[in-house]
Amino acid sequence: MTAERQFGSGRLVGALFPLASAFCLSVNNAAQSLYYDAGGTVPLMLLMRHILYIACCLVLFPLIGKSFAIGGPNFRAALVSGTIYAIGMTTLLAAFLYIPVSLVILTLYTFPILTALMDAAVKRHWPGIGQLVCLLMAFVGLAVALEVTTFAHDPLGIFLVTVTAFCFAAAFVWNGHKLADVDGTLVTFHMAIPGLVIMSVIAIYFGTGDFPLSGSATFAPMWIALIAYLVAFVTMFKGVEVIGPTPSAMIMNLEPVFTMMLAVVVLSEVLTPLRLLGAAIVLSAVLTSQWLATRRVARNAAI
Description:
This protein is mostly helical and 303 residues long. It has one domain. The chain is 80% helix and 0% strand. The model is unreliable at 1-7 (pLDDT under 50).
């Protein structure tokens, strides 16, 4: 079954996967901020993400009767995807060392546009004008919400986060075409394997710091961030499996909006009229994009 047919027959359920991923990533972002403010380290967080996810799969899969096998070609494709995604996560974290957070996030969220273009190139069918307008609207909305006023920053930081955007887009499109018929939970399990190797190397080189003890200021935020990220990781690529890479990437534009709203509650940040305007633009772009996709599927079904 193609991604478009799946979108036509179960678009609401399918859209809930990237929507859940976007929300869980926002929870992860807020909890991570508290974790790092309390003295937590980045290498430990990255390493624990992969260890915990693989450990959960090793326990849960046998309990529900799910096999780990996905076949040689699919296994190799998942390893490639996991490597690409892990490289993207690494360059993303490095980018924060050179440019402001708002600029990192804005540049990162060129990845839905890149996903649409890569996906179209693979299909040899370019996206419609309406879809492209929605993608650009979402990007502009994020620029407004994040209050980014200048790009005059360290070129290395811009380069690093641009690599991340390309890696995320490539992983989405790769999974959407090479692994479209494979269960997303199996795919993410095998993607986590090269991720664990890469993050282990980073942890060995930079050190992880002390593991948070129960009752410490870093303990609860770390576990909240870890659990939220694990749910986000699974639902992100489950969304790619069900509705395809481009619709999933479009919905992921809501992550910074959700993060901004949570930051008001959890981190006592100020919700300015400009941020509200940006959030409204992003939400309008995402809803319009999904409406256009629904019309396209209905039109194709009627032919």
